[in-house]
Amino acid sequence: MSKLTQLPAWRTLWNHFSRARDWHMRELFAADPERAERYWLQAEGLTLDYSKNRISDQTLTLLLQLAEEAGLPEQIEAMFHGDKINVTESRAVLHVALRNRADTPILVDGEDVMPKVNRVLERMGRFAHAVRSGEWLGYTRQPITDIVNIGIGGSDLGPLMVCQALRPYAHPRMNMHFVSNVDSSQLKETLKRVHPETTLFVIESKTFTTQETLTNALTAREWFVARARDEKAVAKHFVAVSTNKQAVAEFGIDPANMFEFWDWVGGRFSLWSAIGLPIMLYLGEESFLDLLEGAHGMDQHFRNAPLAANMPVILALIGIWYINFYGGGSHVIAPYDQYLHRLPAFIQQLDMESNGKQTLRDGQPVDFETAPIIWGETGINGQHAFFQLLHQGTHTSPIDLIASLENCSSLPGHHEILLANLFAQAEAFMRGKTADEVRAELTAQGLEGEALEKLVPHKVFGGNRPTNTLLMSRLDPRHLGALIALYEHKIFVQGAIWGINSFDQWGVELGKQLAKTIHAELAGKRGPAQHDSSTAKLIAFYRQVNGA
Ligand code: F6P
Question: What is the separation, in whole angstroms, between the first and last Cα of the chain?
């Protein structure tokens, strides 16, 4: 048995759950008029209403006790201190250093990392200023109008999500494009929309070994050189962001055009590092620094607020309550904001690549559930697609409903409709609709007898479906920074309590290895390797169809 499942609070929580499983939130609200007052938290311009969860004061007390017994406060300190908490790779985990706007020293192997963090940040700022002001010119002496980011996973999703979320802050001359898929259609369609003389390619890869990114980068380079007809022009149009200087040089990008970061920055936590260069190019240095400020504010809140008033901790503990006790295996992210439409995809990587693990830090298998399946879409579109299942399906999935309070769009009337829908959904998920309420409604519509009774079961909503309502004062760089950091820390807390390493991702390796072998086989560069009959047949079929 794991240490976690032997903790006193874990056992007490199971006893408590045997009563809590029958609660209905309707009754919890009816019995406690102060509920919304108490289950309400504010930090760094974010407001969290967590009252619509199947929890009581006792549930929270026990969950907080679990966090203490699992050593959460010590683990938070270990991260901020630069301890090598990524045990399988023997690395510190210091995305918090990248946004340490207080500039207090943070040591890794006895070296304060802040001077190099600040140096890269300043270099990024100078470069972004040169490009945005038109001082940096392309090979025909024209200013840059288009940035093409080539990267995948953490080298794509973070910058992509932020650039789209903060589009109103973008430079009016600048168009931003993201290419991640090795399916050439994405690159081909992007190249149709840009001109070599005015395009800057940012090749982003922590390792600079990722096949998809290097393939796309090489094709983009060939496309560019074929048009510029001058290898030297590459220096004005290609920059790299990586931890691997040698691989960047071997690829053919001058290390003078490389922006560096370090192995203590995980890919999915890297948007705060030089991986944020496209953000800075598109939105400007000031917006990027505001993003860092917002995240730093949330870091301070996370490090210093008592656990009971700590937003990431509360979100994480409520998540653990559902995942480990109710057995809820999925979690929905539903932003009520079109600009945040890639937030679900971003959090999907952040959470599932971090905590999608089945091995404890000491190598033993877990004996409980870990990361939920994260999915989602903008809330309003979800309402007309998958919310049916969330309301009346057989799965119960907690939902984060996210919006900004301030109307940032200049078009009148829309924001109220959006927020009215969010609040209505949260209420509907909680309350549901009883058979008596349905009967009363149908009677008022003039139905009666058998016709009415036939409809009743279809129109009943069980309710009792948990939601967190998360409101940002406004969608701007600072509050977006705080929101992202909130989720990063929520995921950290869950991993810390479960006792897993949230900072490696060995699970993506096997597919990569096999793809290399199969790629050579598809191209006829090596004979058939040992495969199962299904894989062997698929390879043979492909080769036959393509005449290979
Ligand atoms: O395949 C998973 C992964 O390693 C992610 O963790 C990472 O964000 C992504 O690939 C891209 O890696 P890189 O930045 O090294 O190209």
Answer: 53
